[in-house]
Structure formats: C-alpha cells, structure tokens
Amino acid sequence: MPEKVRVLVVGAGIGGLSTALSLRAAGLGEGVAVVDASRRLLPVGAGINLQPHAVRELEELGVGGDLAEVAAEPRRAVFADRHGNPVVEHPRGRLAGYRWPQLSVHRGELQRVLLEALRSRPGAEVRTGLQLVDFAEREDRVVALLRDRNRPGGPLHTVEAEALVGADGVFSAVRRVLHPGEGAPLWNGIRMWRGVAEAPLPLDGRTMLVAGSYRPARLVVYPLGGKAREGAGVVNWVAEARVSSPPGGREPLPPRAGEADWNAEGRLAEVLAHFADWRIEGLDIPGLLRSAPRILEYPMVDRDPLPYWGRGRATLLGDAAHPMYPVGSNGGSLAVLDARVLAWALAEHRDEGTAAGLRRYEAVRRGPAEQVAAACREMPVDRTLDTVSERAPDGFARIEDVLTRDELRTLRSGARRTTDMDVEELNSRPSWGVEH
User: Fold this and answer.
1) What is the DSSP-derived secondary structure letter of residue 420?
2) Separation between Cα atoms, residue 320 and residue 182, nearest integer Å
3) Distance of alpha carbon 194 from its chain centroid, rounded?
C-alpha cells in the first residue's frame, strides 16, 4: 500500500467501487486507492434492484453492457395481499417512461462487474484485509491508520490522502470517527430472510411481487439474471416478519437480535414458521424457500440522519452516510448516485480545493438521500397493506371493496416516494460526467 494517495476510499462494496470508477471517469483516478477490511471479496449476498437513475450512471461509467448480461429487467411491481390478490400495480423502468431500465441482479454479480471494470483500468489500487482504525485531519491531508489483517499480529500502516471517503456500510469506521458515541443501529423489530433459488419464474417472469404486510409477514419475489436449469429461472426472495415491537417503534439493535450483517446465516425452520401455510396461485412459497441453497438473515435497521456527513477532507457515502430500511429498492442505487456526484463535485471544484468539492457533494446529495431514508422509515406503502390485512384477512374479490379511493391514492404516492424519481427530471437532467 502506498504511503501517499490522492483519494483513499474505505469499503469495496457498491458505493466504494462506484466511487473509484467515477473518479477515474472524471479524470481524478490517478492515486485513488480502495481498501476493504475483508480478506477476500467474495460474490456473497442476494438480489438487489437498481433503479433507472442508478442504471443511467452505471451505463455512463461503461459497465452497462456487462451488467445487462447478468441482470433481469422487471417491467412492473405488483403489491398483493398474502393470498396473492392484487392491491395495486406499478410499471417499472422503461415501461414507466424512463429512458433507462430497472435491473434486478445478484449483489455479488454487481460487485464483480464493478471490480473487474476497475481493475481493467491502468493503475487501479484495490487492497483487501486493510481495516481503518482511525484517522486524523491535517491542514492539507488526512492521515489514516490501517490495520493489516493479512499478516500475523495485524501490523498498522499509515497512509496520507488528499481526501478520505467512508463507503464502509452501516457499521462505518469512518462514521465512527466523524460522529463518535452514536451507538448501535436502530431496529424496528422486523427480521428479514433472503435467498436465491432455481425455480419457475413468478407470474410472467418480468414482475416483482410484494405480498402480505408486516402484520404479521411479507414476501417479496422477483427474477434475477443468470443461468438456471432447463424449465427454471433464478428467483430472489425476501421473507420479512415482525418478531418484536420496540417501544416507540425503534430501539438500538439488541445483542439478542444478532449483528446487522448482510451475510449472516439464517435458518430455514425460522423463516418457514411464518410462511408454511401461505398459498398463492402459481407460486409454491414453501418450496421456493426450501430451494435456496443458502439463507441469509438480517434485522431491518437504519440510523438517524446526521447533522453533517463530513468535515475537512473526509466524508461519507452510501450506507455509511444514510443507511435506510430496504423497502424501496434504493440503498444500492443511492450509493451509485453519491459516487457520481462526489467525483463530479471534486472535478468541478478542483481549483477551490478538495474540502470545497466535498462540501459541494454533501450539499447536493444529503437532502435528497435523507428524504428517501425518511420515507422508507415511514413505510407508507406497508401501512396501507396492513390496513388491507386487517380489513380482509381472508382475501377479497375487488380491492375497491377494501380500500377507499383516497387510500389507494395514498398507496400509489407512497410507492413513488420510496422508489421513484420524477421521470421527466431524470430523463432531461444533464449528465454528471465531467469533460477533461
């Protein structure tokens, strides 16, 4: 690891790799180093949805073709009750009028595409097994202290950088230094189990199905790209259930709830206990859950918004800056947007200095990202689906017999707040690319 770099990016996930690629595209790639505490970057995790605003940025970074080869393109999202009766339907991606699609892809495949793209650029520096311990700000640089987890005893290394970017997730070490004493993430009492299985594609093979509500359980199913055995597809499922009711709706994540680790192992028996009696026409739910070779478990957590993301020459990005409930398919997408704006701001303000560029980045991104995080915490869609569950626990023939027009209107607007940008705004917005 060099003793001096231009930009030190902590975290080699979606946000960190997108940041390095964006800096290179903006002509700032020389001297950019990405470090990650993991000793190996493995294709772990489950499915993720990329919204059109993120797909646009990834296409402009030159990885759109590689991504399309391993992704599926959902055309609509159907919200239904636990029996599969449709409540409301939303077009997605290009069917909704965007110039770019929504894409569903395995998180590990997305990370692989980004990593290979970065390593194909000359001079790319991606180092694993390096854990940020602390950093200090000087007048013209940041001095970071890294522990080498690849060597016995974990020796410490000092690296100087013009800028430090914390893209290291909900337990961000960079955030901990910038905002000490924050405590554990906040849990809303909902547990999530995730799996990827080879199975018949649900519905028409291009639809995301969101069935049920958090009173007591909800299931999300959608196709992923990738090869499967004949007669099957690759299906991602997310099973969610409320297992606790914290006072006030949220509490610091208790030790008994387990770590908020996207790769923590889950148990089939625990998730089946909530869904064994579910029956939806055309979808074998217990069979789908059993088909996943690996089940991951995660508590639904976020953090309160910060008064600022960064100071001086250090800042935060993605989940490190604005962790949110994964209810609107937006976490990974917003990390990509953060990365692009960060590179744009540093390039546009290079004459004013690194600190000025980082403050401009925060000024552009903090408000919009925190609005989405707040909408996800409010869960407007799920509150209406809870109402459906309460009024029609055994199903219904017409949703108009269950919800009023105003309630249906609230449901549609809630889905837009947590998932969509304005179509015309995205389609007409100038590129965040930088001429150089």
Assistant:
1) P
2) 13
3) 14
Helix ranges, 40-155 (H): 52-60, 64-69, 107-119
pLDDT in tens, 11-48: 999 999 999 999 999 998 889 999 999 988 887 789 99
Whether 338 and 318 have beta carbons less than 8 Å apart is answered as: yes
Residues in the chain: 436
What is the full DSSP assignment across 346-366?
HHHTTTT-HHHHHHHHHHHHH
Please give the structure tokens belonging to residue 63: 């990885």
DSSP E strands in 303-360: the ranges are 314-316
Cα radius of gyration (the chain): 22
Q: What are the tokens at 100?
A: 């770019």
CA distances from 434 to 20, 23, 173, 349, 350 (A): 14, 10, 30, 11, 12
Rounded to the nearest 10 degrees, the angle between the axes of helix 14-25 and helix 331-348 is 30
- Core vs surface per residue 58-90: b (16+ CB within 10 A) or e: bbebebbebbbebbbbbbbbbbbbbbbbebbeb
Prediction pTM value: 0.94
Q: Are 222 and 236 in contact (CB under 8 A)?
A: yes
SS3 174: helix
Cα 422 to chain centroid, rounded: 20
**Residue 436's pLDDT is what?**
57
Cβ atoms within 10 Å of 301's Cβ, excluding its own: 21
Burial class (CB in 10 A: 0-12, 13-18, 19+), 35: buried
64 with 55: CB under 8 angstroms?
yes
Going by the DSSP 8-state scheme, the letter that residue 288 receives in this structure is: H
